[in-house]
Design brief:
The chain contains twelve helices and two strands. It is mainly α. The protein folds into two domains: 177 residues, no CATH class; 131 residues, Glycosyltransferase (Alpha/alpha barrel), CATH 1.50.10. Strand 1 and strand 2 form a beta hairpin. It is globular and about 50 Å long. It starts with 6 loop residues before the first strand and ends in a 13-residue tail after the last helix.
Length: 331
């Protein structure tokens, strides 16, 4: 929020998939483990930033306007932000146990931008800067999965509202019709989405995703992001193949959301990997870019580790909760 590159108009900042979103998802989940009763100052600042942009939706500029970033960045920015705003505010509402007017406004913005025809029917425009895994040609699927998570997370039975059923049906159809051909990373995301919003995947499809994720697990119990997609670095350097905090956190969290018990031996090994690989000095988990070799001491070099830390926290805190969903794997 203080990084100059993320500064936007109306004294707001860009909400990023690599840092702000994982933080917004993970920090509330960490509260119980820390025996906290109040949100932190940083959380409140982030939520204030999001709600301000939701309330000023027709006034704030897109994250990346066409005029400075080229076509179709305005459309991509609006679709991306609409989804991120909805999932962040729905997460806040879920932890508070009550729906908010700001979240409902965010969902109104979201549905207004949903495509109604074409290959992306049911989904949204999504930023594509040719950076994997969040800002690439196939990242619209990632965004649509997040939208489903948001809808299924908002409390007070938001997903059951009659007026949005056609929208939800279109979203589910989009996610289902290409699930089998998506990179394993996106399939992990839709497994999470299917645990929040019914009708996206059948039991057999959920099991198929889980089986593919188990098959990619490394001997040390973790996962490598490089095994979850066919990605190549643009600078020609070799992608790291060892287990990393982001892939392990995402997969372990998604499998738990799908109903796999943390005591299941393979998942237990993954959670142990996370426990053993937190850095003692910084508290973070490490992950590296799939796009180019980055200096880990720079802000950009920390992006993947920001995401890794958020999802490691989600996986580890989820393991402390009762498991109530159908299992996606043998007990």
């Amino acid at each position: 929020m203080t990084w100059p590159n993320a500064s936007r108009d109306h004294e707001t900042s860009c909400v990023s998939c690599h840092t702000a979103l994982p933080y917004a998802l993970a920090r509330p989940a960490l509260r119980a483990s820390l025996h906290e009763s109040e949100t932190t100052t940083t959380e409140r600042r982030l939520i204030d930033n999001v709600t301000k942009r939701v309330r000023l939706w027709k006034e704030v500029d897109p994250f990346y306007p066409d005029q400075t970033s080229g076509l179709p960045k305005t459309s991509e920015s609006r679709g991306t932000e609409a989804i991120l705003n909805a999932v962040i505010l729905a997460t806040r509402d879920a932890h508070a146990g009550t729906a908010s007017d700001d979240a409902r406004a965010a969902f109104d913005n979201l549905w207004a931008l949903q495509f109604r025809r074409g290959d992306l029917s049911g989904a949204w425009a999504w930023l594509n800067f040719h950076y994997e895994p969040w800002e690439s040609g196939d990242a619209a699927y990632f965004g649509a999965a997040l939208a489903a998570v948001a809808v299924g997370t908002e409390p007070e039975a938001y997903a059951a509202r009659a007026d949005i059923q056609p929208r939800i049906k279109a979203l589910g159809a989009y996610l289902q019709r290409s699930a089998a051909t998506q990179a394993l990373f996106n399939r992990a995301m839709v497994l999470w989405a299917a645990s929040r919003l019914s009708g996206i995947l059948s039991d057999a499809e959920r099991q198929s995703v889980a089986d593919a994720l188990w098959a990619a697990q490394q001997p040390d119990g973790g996962w490598s992001l490089s095994s979850l997609g066919a990605w190549k670095r643009i600078d020609g350097t070799a992608i790291e193949t060892q287990s990393d905090g982001y892939a392990t956190g995402v997969v372990a969290f998604a499998l738990q959301q799908a109903g796999v018990s943390p005591t299941e031996p393979r998942l237990s090994r993954a959670l142990s990997w996370l426990t053993e690989h937190q850095e003692t000095g910084t508290g973070m988990w490490r992950a590296t870019s799939q796009n180019k070799q980055r200096d880990p001491a720079t802000d950009i070099g920390k992006f993947m580790s920001d995401a890794a830390t958020g999802f490691a926290v989600l996986a580890l805190t989820q393991s402390q909760l009762p498991q109530t969903r159908p299992s996606a794997g043998p007990p």
